[in-house]
Amino acid sequence: MRAVVQRVTRASVAVEGETVGQIQRGLLVFLGVEVGDEKSDLDYLVGKITGLRIFEDAEGKMNLSLLDTQGALLVISQFTLLGDVKKGKRPSFVQAAKPELARHLYQEFIEACREINVPVQTGIFQAEMAVELVN
To answer: What is the pLDDT of residue 109?
Structure first.
């Protein structure tokens, strides 16, 4: 699994002009599932992302996690994170998991975050999404 994580003051995702997910303070996560990924990879990422100490404490130091601040997640499926451009100029996506596995692990990631009481909003798997964020 590969994730790009962005701290945001607000973020939203729209499909066909309609907002389908939005958060205030928290993390925007673009999540890509790779061939060979399994539950242990998912568990590692859930712990890592929700535990990242990237929010400021009362003294202005990056000392607090998403869990500490009771922030939210906006999780967007993004197979293009697995694009390989080592050869040529057109990315190869052979390392991206097939949609069935990717959808399953994407949903499991979301549920695992919700199980630890993190509010989660999402995009729509395999849809063309427009993401807006303020960081």
So the answer is: 97
Contacts of 134 (CB under 8 A, 6+ apart): 8, 9, 10, 11
pTM of the model: 0.93
The pLDDT > 90 percentage for the chain reads 98
List the alpha helices (DSSP H) in the chain.
39-51, 66-69, 99-115
Average pLDDT estimate for 85-97: 92
* Residues designated catalytic: 78-80
Q: How far apart are CA 71 and CA 134, in angstroms?
A: 15
What's the CA dihedral at 86, 87, 92, 94 to 10 degrees?
-80
Closest-CA residue to 2 (of 26, 51, 35):
35
> Would you report the helix, strand and coil content of the chain in percent, each value rounded to 5?
30, 35, 35
